[in-house]
Design goal:
α3 links the parallel β5 and β6. This protein has an eight-stranded mixed β-sheet, sandwiched between helices. The chain is of the alpha+beta class and 222 residues long.
Length: 222
């Protein structure tokens, strides 16, 4: 039943993002499905960013050795979970270049109708508003009529100042500390939980709010 709740694959794009005050030094920001043809670019980017991302990456608490899936297996697993309505694994593109990922995982239905959103972005795109816009696009899609969830949450390690600033910039409500919430970089780690409900967005989505805020700043600066 869950597989019929939304279309997959789906492509979400925002054009003229610099002119609209959403992102610095970019034209188009898109979220799309991960594809087998992404392997070379994805592996190059992940390897180059491995040390920087390691303190924030989920790890397996089991002491048993686990073989990592091949990229092809990873793509198939992600596509299968998306078709089953369990996740939405997006690739982030900026002007046609792979720049990171945004994943809604897990997605829960029934009486919960919620998703957790996680993300990473390459260092070349940090500090330019790219990930803030990408998360806003994903949240709008998840809480909008295309998917129809009621709640989206983002869980961030307390020391991840960039992610905490992102959540606050998007107006996500801070809900408190979750002790030992997830296994990260080899140990159980506390996380600060942020969330937003569909009714809190009202008629305007997060992207529209970001654009309105940018226009207000521009008017004040002129």
């Amino acid at each position: 039943m869950a597989s019929s709740r939304y279309l997959w694959p789906v492509r979400l794009c925002q054009d003229d993002v610099t002119a609209r005050g959403l992102v610095r030094d970019a034209g188009v920001v898109c979220l799309r499905e991960l594809r087998p043809g992404d392997e070379e670019e994805w592996l190059r980017l992940r390897l180059s960013e491995a040390g920087r991302l390691a303190p924030w990456e989920a790890t397996c608490p089991s002491q048993a050795r686990q073989d990592l899936p091949t990229f092809a297996d990873y793509v198939r697993q992600q596509a299968r979970r998306a078709r089953q309505g369990q996740a939405m694994p997006f690739v982030l593109e900026v002007d046609g270049m792979l720049a990171g990922q945004v994943s809604a995982d897990p997605i829960q239905w029934g009486s919960v109708r919620s998703a957790q959103v996680g993300y990473w972005v390459a260092s070349a795109y940090e500090g330019r508003g790219v990930m803030r816009l990408a998360v806003a696009m994903a949240v709008d899609h998840l809480l909008g009529p295309q998917v129809g969830l009621h709640r989206v949450e983002v869980n961030v390690r307390p020391g991840n100042r960039r992610s905490i600033a992102l959540c606050r910039a998007l107006g996500l409500r801070e809900e408190g500390l979750r002790r030992a919430f997830m296994h990260i970089d080899g140990d159980w780690a506390d996380h600060v939980s942020f969330a937003v409900l569909s009714e809190e967005l009202g008629g305007a989505g997060m992207v529209a709010r970001l654009e309105a805020r940018a226009q207000t700043r521009g008017a004040c600066d002129s």
